[in-house]
Amino acid sequence: MHWLLAARLLVARLLVARLFVASLLFGVSSHGALAGCDLGQVVGYNLVFGKTIQAYLEDGKRVQGFTGCTRDRVLVFTDGTGVRCKDVFVHEARLPKAYLFAKNRNDMKLCIGDDMYDVAPPN
Prior knowledge:
Shape: globular
Distance between the termini: 53 Å
Radius of gyration: 17 Å
Number of strands: 9
Helix content: 10-25%
Mean pLDDT: 80
Structural class: alpha+beta
Low-confidence stretches: 14-33
């Protein structure tokens, strides 16, 4: 009987994990749907996090808001962590949600809105 209880617990955990992944993919969360990026670009990557961009660091100054990226600009999330831009792009949004996908520290992509960008660790 002990093995049956363990098997049921394992099945329940797997179902919860699947529901969590489905909520990320289909937007059944308090933060809205996963951004509209082409997920085909990140096959083989791991979803590291989904966070809100609060500010950016450039030329030694912290600027509130988000207006896109220039090379080496650091995007700062609400929890104080960040990523460094490798691409140049214009994208204005008020506190946008960003999703980080990574294979390793040298191969990371950030999904913001409908667009996917190459990023690096902040330092």
